[in-house]
Write a structure and sequence with these properties.
The protein has helices spanning 19-59, 76-83, 128-132, 150-162, 188-195, 218-232, and strands at 62-69, 101-108, 111-118, 137-143, 173-178, 205-209. The chain is built from six helices and six strands. The protein folds into two domains: 16-60; 61-232, 3-Layer(aba) Sandwich (Rossmann fold), CATH 3.40.50.300. A six-stranded mixed beta sheet has the order 2-3-1-4-5-6, with helices on both faces. The structure holds guanosine-5'-triphosphate and magnesium ion. Guanosine-5'-triphosphate (GTP) binds at residues 70, 72-78, 92, 95, 97-98, 119-121, 178-179, 181-182, 211-213.
């Protein structure tokens, strides 16, 4: 057998441990790995518990107020009624034009909502900034079939933004381009461009097409809003 040169590395097999030491070593290793397995289990449990806690925290009944604004006849009240539970919903053909404002309270996606459905009539628009002071989110409804008044809608949007607490306070804006069931309505991208939403850099906003009569797009819009309200807490 050729002798190893001194520079050649010795291996474990060159110096076998006595059986007792070797098994003690194995026991230590397995104890350590069991301890680390326990730690991993504990961490996993804690992760699971914190996931459940955050889930419950997130969806335990919470409260938020919404301000619903937009020109008269845009479909605000019809949209609010659509979001309500079936049992308390007023049928679309029995909703009168709003006078002043109307407050509705209902729970949607585990959030207790207080909804300020404002009149869009010119004589009541001055009320919007007052109710914007405390709101958690704004729903701005646009009649996507009414091309002649979209410029007016833009002015009212700027007005409520500049003459209210919203000027300094971040709060999410949901833009609903309503009446998309009708022919020749403006697509959301066109409405966004006219309203100048590109300039909305300091707040979160979302725009989608919807129909308060068919329900199209309304769940999508509300899902975004609820997510924003969750993030804000
Ligand atoms: N085709 C169509 N009609 C709609 C839609 N939403 C609302 N309308 C109709 O539009 C009209 C006005 O609806 P409202 O919900 O009263 O409008 P509003 O924005 O609350 O109006 P004010 O209370 O006056 O500010 C009603 O005749 C509704 O039936 C829609 O998605 N599609
Ligand atoms: Mg109304």
């Amino acid at each position: 057998m050729s002798r190893r040169q001194p520079w050649q590395r010795h291996t474990f097999l060159d110096h076998p441990r006595p059986a007792a030491i070797y098994s003690a070593h194995c026991f230590e290793v397995s104890k350590r790995s069991r301890r680390s397995n326990n730690l991993i289990d504990e961490e996993r449990e804690m992760g699971f518990m914190s996931a459940i806690t955050s889930f419950l925290g997130r969806y335990r009944s919470r409260k938020a107020s919404l301000l619903v604004v937009g020109l008269d006849n845009a479909g605000k009240s019809t949209i609010v009624q659509y979001y309500k539970p079936d049992s308390s919903r007023v049928p679309a053909d029995q909703i009168p034009p709003t006078v002043g404002f109307h407050i509705d309270r209902f729970t949607r996606d585990h959030v207790q909502l207080t909804v300020f459905d404002m009149s869009g009539s010119a004589r009541y628009r001055d009320l919007w900034p007052y109710y914007a002071a405390e709101t958690d989110a704004v729903v701005f409804v646009i009649d996507a079939a009414d091309k002649t008044r979209i410029e007016c809608a833009r002015r009212e949007l700027l007005d409520v933004l500049h003459n209210s607490e919203l000027k300094v306070r971040e709060c999410p804006f949901l833009f609903l381009c309503n009446k998309c069931d009708m022919a020749d309505t403006m697509p959301a991208a066109e409405v966004a461009a006219i309203l100048g939403l590109d300039a909305f850099k300091d707040r979160s906003w979302y725009i989608c097409e919807c129909s308060a009569l068919t329900g199209q797009g309304l769940s999508e819009g509300m899902a975004w809003l609820i997510e924003q309200l969750s993030v804000a807490r």
